[in-house]
Specification:
binds magnesium ion; globular; 17 strands; 17 helices; binds sulfopyruvate; 5-stranded parallel beta sheet; alpha/beta; Rossmann fold; single chain
Length: 439
């Protein structure tokens, strides 16, 4: 390889928003191979596998344009290099050798295959694992978990992605799980959950209590704090009925101060029971007027710009009809709700789809939230196409954990020893190393 090989095209994809010496070193090496094109990974792709970028795409592009000797800066829409390699046909693709193993491995393999088609070459430089660069990453992570940063990121995620997914977390451990679980997708991308849902059902169940506002707010805030200590993703809090109008303002202020992004309150009054009971138990819906007053009290108490109050409509759960649900949705949005959640316990998604369609005829922008526990056949893609903005997986982690634990408990009782359950349990080595010490 000659220095300043001007007739060669070199391609490198960058997702970082903080350029440090390690990046400059690799950029300088890449420049020596030819004209260097930097592909800047789109906000959506960065979010999908890592976190919300601190610096949005256009600004990140500018950062690279200002580095001397870079020939061109383009966007790379997806984690897969396919589109840009096909379009640019670079002689060399440059990357650190840190993707030889781990979740980026399939992306690397695809790059090798694509380059093979026309005789391009993959050049891998040793990845810098210097402590000072690791420290920068750690500082970024810590900054992301500060209240102002974390709170604002749900709105940003909605703007960037259109549809955001949230998975329930009810403890530090489940928070960590939601924070870190990553899967490879068929299109070569990677996927993580965007946010966490702190469900009243799961928080209560984990404490062995019924879901009826029995676990008080102080305890609910403690759960939030446990989760926040070990995560950075935005949090959507299940605020049940929001309590008394006079109390709700205080809850809003506390949640904001903690860095929660959204509270969802449901239009019920009196002794609240879980919605999935439907009309099997006595549940009373609040009047439109009262609930609007509660929303207004929350909005008045709110101090930050980016906190969101979502009004949850129980008309379909309580069999009050579509018209009632829609009337409420428009009234609640008018009263200041930043989002609307529509709930249903039907297996078929028809009433949810009808609501979304009719709401969107008159209101294009207010985000719509759904919790597809019962209507669980609908994909995120279909929800998005129909105009839904937030999909919450409200209880699956705790529902998965319980039968697994119960089975282990029974097997030990039956066998009078623990040997038979060993292969159903995470190993001791794994469990003692599961939690990173520097979290
Ligand atoms: C929760 O997760 O606590 C909810 C959603 O409120 S549901 O259980 O479906 O009512
Ligand atoms: Mg709840």
């Amino acid at each position: 390889m000659k220095d300043n090989n001007e007739d060669k095209i070199v391609y490198m994809c960058m997702s970082t928003d903080i350029i440090h010496g390690g990046h400059i070193k690799i950029i300088n090496k890449a420049k020596k191979l030819g004209k260097l094109i930097i592909g800047v990974l789109s906000d959506e792709a960065v979010m999908g596998y890592k976190r919300i970028p601190l610096v949005p795409l256009e600004e990140r592009k500018k950062l690279y344009k200002n580095i001397e000797g870079i020939y061109k800066v383009v966007e790379q829409k997806e984690l897969s290099y396919k589109d840009n390699i096909k379009r640019i046909q670079p002689d060399y693709v440059v990357h650190g050798d840190n993707w030889v193993t781990g979740y980026q491995q399939p992306i690397r393999e695809e790059v090798i295959e694509l380059l093979k088609e026309y005789g391009g070459e993959l050049v891998e430089f040793p990845y810098s694992s210097e402590k000072k660069y690791k420290d920068i990453d750690e500082r970024t992570r810590q900054e992301l978990s500060l209240p102002d940063f974390r709170r604002s990121r749900l709105k940003k995620a909605l703007e960037m992605k259109g549809l955001v997914t949230a998975m329930e977390a009810h403890s530090g451990l489940t928070g960590l799980l939601v924070e870190t679980t990553t899967v490879n997708e068929k299109n070569g991308g990677l996927k993580q959950f965007d946010a966490m849902w702190i469900s009243s059902l799961c928080d209560s169940t984990d404490k062995g209590k019924p879901d009826m506002e029995l676990v008080d707010m102080t305890s609910r805030f403690r759960t939030i704090d446990d989760i926040m200590e070990v995560t950075t993703k935005p949090i959507i809090f299940d605020g049940d009925t929001g309590g008394l109008k006079e109390h709700f303002g205080y809850t809003v202020k506390t949640l904001e101060r903690m860095g929660v992004s959204m509270v969802i309150i449901e239009d019920k009054i009196g002794l609240k029971k879980n919605s999935l009971f439907g009309t099997e138990v006595k549940q009373t819906q609040d009047s439109i007027e009262n609930f609007c007053e509660k929303i207004k009290a929350g909005k008045e108490a709110q101090k930050s710009e980016d906190f969101m109050i979502c009004a949850r409509i129980e008309s379909l759960i309580l069999e009050q009809g579509m018209e009632d649900a829609l009337n409420r949705a428009f009234a609640f949005a008018e009263a200041g709700a930043d989002a609307i959640m529509i709930h249903s316990r039907k297996k078929e998604p028809d009433e949810i789809f009808e609501f979304v369609e009719k709401f969107r005829e008159k209101d294009e922008f207010t985000p719509i939230v759904v919790v597809p526990t019962s209507f669980n056949t609908v994909t995120e893609e279909e929800f998005k196409e129909r105009g839904v903005n937030i999909v919450i997986y409200a209880n699956q982690l705790i529902r998965a954990a319980f039968p697994a634990m119960q089975n282990v408990a029974k097997t030990i009782l039956q066998n009078h020893r623990a040997k038979e359950v060993d292969d159903q349990c995470i190993s001791i080595k794994e469990i003692i190393t599961l939690i990173p010490e520097d979290y």
